[in-house]
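Batch job 17 of 40 flagged for manual review because the log was empty.
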Amino acid sequence: MYRITDRSTSYFVHFEGHQDCGITSPDLYTPPKYADTKSLKHTLFCQNRVRLLEALSSGGRHGFDVPYSPLGCHYRWYTTPEICMILERFDAVVFIGDDMLKTVYSAFNMLLRENTAMGGLRQWEMTETEREQCRCDNQVVKPECFGHLVMDRTRHFFLPISGSPASAEVYEKFNKILGADPDSYKPIPVIHTLGLSTSLSWPQATASMDEFLTLADASTRNVPFLWLSPNAAGHLKPPSRILSQGNNALWHYTIEMAKEAQTREVESLGMYNLTLQARSWDGSGYGERVALVQAMMVSFNSISFCCIILGKKTQV
């Protein structure tokens, strides 16, 4: 089922924009190597959600901008049909967060639409000039392109927040998603983050956790949450922001928010190690190569282990 060798070289060949954007599978993903031919191949992949989240959070890059290697066990790079099979398990998938999560959601749509050129954009609403200006990396790094990002599609949604409390519009949409089919047994996973938009405010982040957990608990649905930590500071981070948004501040924020999530029985996934040696455009934002890896890790690998016990409301 997992054609690792073939997929490692040809995954993006049939994607729209694969030549223009210059993205190849070996740039993003290194499959696990089978040193022992007698061992079972599936044992090289993380066998449960706890091990997966720990491996993804604790890995590293063996050189600047080389593919990320998780620690101890590997994650899978799914094909589009496999991605669709994963999403069929849920009534919806909801992303709640600031600009960092917006780029992950954009890459989520690139993978689903098999389009690295403009898969994260509502290109049907754009002029020809806008399409040319917002192709490939530009769709997730140019501020003038952000207004064209896909915000919701059938069964998956991005709800933008920049602090706590969220807007009444976000509350209304979230409640509408949860209440669409109250008798359904299928879960609705929520991927949640808040970081640089609040200048790494712990009180703002914990308040945001609590407000959405409260809304989810008030529904009759199974709504598992995953807290996502912010990216590391890139090498181009302006000196004026190093004290407040540098790696020391980001690391402490990641650790403290993981503790806060744990006290609420919410699991967390760290993005610090993943982005620490990745190429950044401005020290805060990263291009679609990083976003595609994040989307595969967060949106598909993490939720693929989600909600084994259906019909029971849990925060995982």
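Reviewer: the log was empty due to a logging misconfiguration, but the result itself is present. Confidence is low (pLDDT under 50) at residues 1-6, 308-316. Unflagging and moving on to job 18.
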